[in-house]
Amino acid sequence: MSNTPSDPPPTLLSLENYSIKSLPRNAYYIPSFLTPSESTTLLGHISKHPWTTLTHRRLQPHPAPLTPSGHLLTAKSLPEFLVTPVVERILSLYFASSSPPSSSSSSPTGDSNESNEGKKKEGIFTTSPHTRPNHVLINEYPPGTGISPHEDGGAYFPVVCTVSLGGHIILEVTPKKKKAHDENNDDDDANDQSNHTANETNKREEEERRYKIFQEPGSLLITMDEMYTQHLHGILPVEVDEGLDEGTVANWGLLAEETRGRILEGGGRVKREEVRISLTYRDVLKVKDAGKVFGGRGLGRR
Ligand SMILES: O=C(O)CCC(=O)C(=O)O
Ligand SMILES: [Fe+2]
């Protein structure tokens, strides 16, 4: 894949520059991760591959679907069109501070390679079992479709890199429910009264801890750590996204000026005009070479 001179690859900064600071740690949003021509080329490749059709959506698992027990059982590696440029660019991202911030209060650092001298710079897959994504799930969302709140679970190393193509989308992130103690148990004593009040407070706090992440076409969203393990994510099945502003969109400050203008012009409402396609890059923990499993000669993998 080549870039024309008018469409140079993006200059990427260290990850701290893309941190969504209003979210629990850690999430990073990189606008214009892919150029328009790279996005068009990628969409062209995707359109040539077969889709698995669900009730409201279609998807493509590459290089293969996971088994029910969460294994990647294949001798194939990711097809080249999903590796270049996306995986290469993901692997080129690094933390200037040598590791992901351990506290959301840690301050962003510049791009100097000099920090933490002697320590190797860490990327997002440095400590994952295969040190790179080995699986991509492609999802297609026509306007009006979404995905229910869910967590991605234990089959993957807890890092997700999502590339968005086509239209925009809003990812809704909510904390996993704490144990619903006493919720259906409104008996008559003073304890229950205080439990009830505590539940109301919990509910209100949970409402306040809902987050919207606006994903522009060509962007990359990285969620990891507590964002992966302690939260659910989903997409509302609506044709118009509403209630968008500086206070509700967690990555507002990282959006393109033009996008913010469009949202403001619409009074916080944005119509989904185009089909949005997402590519979620992850490292599946358990990989087995199907050739070896079935007694043949393994072909190895990337
Ligand atoms: O399309 C997205 O952005 C989310 C997809 C997703 O949550 C998943 O594939 O698990
Ligand atoms: Fe998911």
Written description of the protein model:
The chain is an alpha+beta fold and 302 residues long. Strands 1-10-7-14-5-3-2 form a seven-stranded antiparallel beta sheet. A four-stranded antiparallel beta sheet has the order 6-11-8-9. The protein has a two-stranded parallel ribbon with strand order 4-15. Helices cover 21% and strands 23% of the residues. Mean pLDDT is 86; it is low at 103-116, 181-190 and 296-302. It is built from six helices and 15 strands. The two termini are 20 Å apart. The radius of gyration is 21 Å and the shape is globular. A hairpin with a 4-residue loop joins β2 and β3 (58-62). Bound molecules: 2-oxoglutaric acid (AKG) and fe (ii) ion (FE2). 2-oxoglutaric acid binds next to β5 and β14.
What would you call the shape? globular
Largest sheet: 7 strands, antiparallel
| Through-space gap between termini | 20 Å
What class, by secondary structure content? alpha+beta
Q: Uncertain regions: pLDDT < 50 for 5+ in a row?
A: 103-116, 181-190, 296-302
Question: Average pLDDT across residues?
Answer: 86
Please count the helical segments.
6
Give the H and E element order. EHEEEHEEEEHEEHEEHEEEH
Q: What would you report as the Rg, rounded to the nearest angstrom?
A: 21 Å
Strand order of the largest sheet: 1-10-7-14-5-3-2
List how many beta strands DSSP finds.
15
Residues in helices, as a percent range: 10-25%
Write out the distinct hetero groups bound to the structure: 2-oxoglutaric acid, fe (ii) ion
Strand content: 15-25%
Subcellular location: Nucleus
Family: Belongs to the alkB family.
Protein name: Fe2OG dioxygenase domain-containing protein
Biased composition (Low complexity): 97-108
